Every structure is written in C-alpha cells, then in structure tokens.
Amino acid sequence: MINETHPLQLGKYNRLEVIKELDFGLYLDGFEGEEILIPRVYVPEGTQIGQFLDVFIYRDSEDRLIATTLKPYATVGEFAYLKVKDVSKLGVFLDWGLMKDLLVPFGEQQSKMAVGRSYLVYIYIDEETQRIVASAKIDKFLPNDAEEFTEKQQVELLPYEYTDLGIKALINKCKIGVIYKNEVFKSVNLGEFTIGYIKKIREDGKIDLTLEKIGFERIDNTKSFILSQLNNHNGFLPYNDKTSAEVIYSNLQMSKKDFKKAIGGLYKDMQIIIKEDGIYINKQE
C-alpha cells in the first residue's frame, strides 16, 4: 500500500515528488524540507522533475534516508521468513531483498541464528536508534486483541519451523499454532503462505491445525481425488484397506483413515470394486 499522506513513513512505501536531478540520482520531496536521494540505478528511465515515484524508504549505512524502487520481501509491521546472510558484532544480517541487509540484534534472537538458515521475524523500527530492524522473538509482537478462532475455520498459515511435534505456523498473522506430524499429508514449504484449518482449540489457548478440510467435505474431496487417480491409471490402483499407511501417504498424500473412508464410500456408491490386489473402477456403472 502506497502512503499518499504526510508524514514520511520509514520502512514502508511512499509516493514522493521528484524535485531535483543530479548525476548520481534524483532528490525526492520528503516533506518538511527533507530531501531524499534515490540513487540513479533505481530511477525508472524517463523520470522527470515534477513526477511522482512510488518508493520504499530506509536508512543507509550512514543513517541517511534513502529511496529505492526495489521491493523488500516485507515492510515494517510485517512478519517474514528470511535467510541469514552474515553475522557481525551487532547481530545477524538477513537478506530482505535490498542492497542493505536487515539486522537482527543479538538481544532479539530467540536462539542462536546461523548463516544459511531462515527464520520467521517481525520487522519494526527501533525506538532508540530509529533504524529498521527485525526480531525473532515473535511472540511479543503478536497482537493482544487477536481475532478469536473457531474450530473448522479456514485460516491463512505461514509455516516457519519444524519441531518434534510437527510444524509451527503463524495463523492469520496474529497467533501461533501447530500442524502435527500425523496431519501432514502434502508438501509444506516453510516461509510460504498456505491455507489451513483450525482443528482444535485447547483449554490453554493453544491451537492445533490441519491442512485438510474437516468433516464430510474433506472426504468428498478425497473420493473425487481417488476417482481421478483411477481414471489416470487405466481404472486401477494397487491399494486397498490392507495397504500400509506409509505407502498410501507416499503415493496419495492422504492418511490411511481418510483413504479407507473414501473407498468405503465409493464402494457403497458402487463406483469401485475392491479386490486383493487393489481397487478398480466399476465399469458396469
């Protein structure tokens, strides 16, 4: 979202007027007499004085305000899953899509952060230094007035960490939940938003998640998927209720429980035939 109002918003996108041109770049009107440089390399071709540019504002290594048309992976006030590029005496630096990397001070690390690994962080402006920084202590940035969830509710998930129990995920950017290992039946990419569902809300407020729809609609989807697989494999699949859960998960990306419910429903509807070597489409139908 572009800011079209005053004052200037550090760490966000702003629409600013070009007021001066020099060999090394343009100066933009940053309001209240502030002139902000956009280096020549980031200036769109053909830009002239009096035009407005949509730019991201940050501070360079000398704490000067700088504008760029590059788009960082996230802005101030957002969560992001970013990779550690370097370690310094101040903390670790994350790649967030700009020439200047994003600092996570040592005091804002949940645990020691390693080069090459990615972490979920929250981006904010440090009140003391007025610099854009990030924190891996995400709990303290979750809103106190987070929305109330209900079981079976569809939500947006940002999976970000593997644990012994499963995968931790940020829910609607306001709470943390867990997708348990036995609920993961498809590929999950850490750092990529996906759709999930609230499976259970525990008495202590902790939330269990699932990636599959809950209830009859999920089984209907599973039945449709199995039928499509049968049609794609000449009407036969070498699986039945005696097939191991591991084989079903590996080949069909579903739990054995859902598989058995689905083929039971298809058999009852006379859409398939179940034999010792697998399941067949009922061609008589």
Automatic annotation (TrEMBL):
Residues 10-69, 76-132 form the Conserved virulence factor B first S1 domain. This is S1-like domain-containing RNA-binding protein. Residues 226-280 form the Conserved virulence factor B-like winged helix domain. Belongs to the CvfB family. InterPro entries: CvfB_fam, CvfB_S1_st, CvfB_WH, NA-bd_OB-fold, WH-like_DNA-bd_sf.
